[in-house]
Amino acid sequence: RQSCIRNNVWLACCGVVSAGLAVLSSFGLMLFCGVPFVVTVANAPFLILGVGVDDMFIMIASWEQTSRKKGKSDVKSRLAETYAEAALSVTITTLTDVLAFFIGTWTAFPSVRSFCLYTGTAFVFCYIYNMTFFGAIIVLNYKREQGNRHWLTCMPVGVDEDQGHKSCLYNACCIGNCSGQSPQPESEHPMSIFFKKYYGPFFTNKWIKLLVVVLYGAYLGGSIYGCTQMREGIDLRNLASDGSYVIPYYDDDDKYFSAYGPRVMVVITESVDYWNETVRLAIENCTQNLE
């Protein structure tokens, strides 16, 4: 928002901080428990950030919706209504994510198991911080707005009647007086109006619904066909970076040595006197027999 009071930059930053705290807490707990840290775990923060920011938007949207409801003026009732609206969807999505990753810990691959443990635990902490830390931040931000304080410095701002002649940049970043703005709720967001008045009615048309069903059927058929064409396994080239020497190595290996099959190795588990010529001949005879 261009309002120097209604701007919620710090609120959004705290939503990202909440996801970061979840990552730190989960990583610290797993390392304390002795779970190995593998390279793939370094990708987990990006997943947690995506889910944490999504939950943050749900919380903020529910909070904004309570401002337009009658009888929801005090902080306690608004926050209770916010949790009633947002906590259910956040809980369901978090639960499905946690179950998905914890089921992944049953795999036989140690690296995948570690990744699922770290990420699943991070989802749990992300949910806890969103329900506690971020909810408190929403209330603090609301009190800042009620106190007519600047979004950047949190300093009280006055009302300047000739503020309309000043630039939008000044209105957003000024530290002194500000245009006559009220902390009262704003009108409905244009995006909400678009989905409610245009997008929703468009999809309730019977011909559009029929078209959606046909498209979904085509999508489902293509998905089933794709599943039948899938092959198990993994191409080791995909595990290396683009400029790695591993890629031409596997290309040459497939080109020149693919006809020979896998290598066969023989391990002698007992102590052997390699200085004894008789022993060496016995080993050579054993090798010839294997060949």
Over all CA atoms, what is the radius of gyration?
31 Å
Structural class: mainly alpha
Total helical elements: 9
Strand content: under 5%
Largest sheet: none
Write down the domain tally: 3
| Overall number of strands | 0
Q: What is the string of SSEs from the N terminus onward?
A: HHHHHHHHH
Helix content: 55-70%
Family: Belongs to the patched family.
Pfam family, one: Patched
Subcellular location: Membrane
Keywords: Glycoprotein, Membrane, Transmembrane, Transmembrane helix
Provide an overview of this structure:
By secondary structure, the protein is mostly helical. It folds into 3 domains: 8-159 and 166-177, no CATH class; 201-229; 261-290, no CATH class. The chain is built from 9 helices and no strands. Helix 2 (44-66) runs antiparallel to helix 3. It is elongated. The chain starts with 8 loop residues before the first helix and ends with a helix. Residues 175-183 have low confidence and may be disordered. Residues 1-140 form the SSD domain. It is found in: Membrane. One of its GO terms (cellular component) is membrane.
List the keywords.
SSD; single chain; transmembrane; glycoprotein; PTHD_SSD; mainly alpha; PTHD3 protein
Short précis:
This is PTHD3 protein. The chain has 291 residues and is an all-alpha fold. It is built from nine helices and no strands.
List the helices and strands and how they pair.
Layout: H1 9-32, H2 44-66, H3 75-103, H4 110-146, H5 168-173, H6 190-203, H7 206-228, H8 246-257, H9 277-290
Family: Belongs to the patched family.
Subcellular location: Membrane
InterPro entries: Patched_domain-protein, PTHD_SSD, SSD
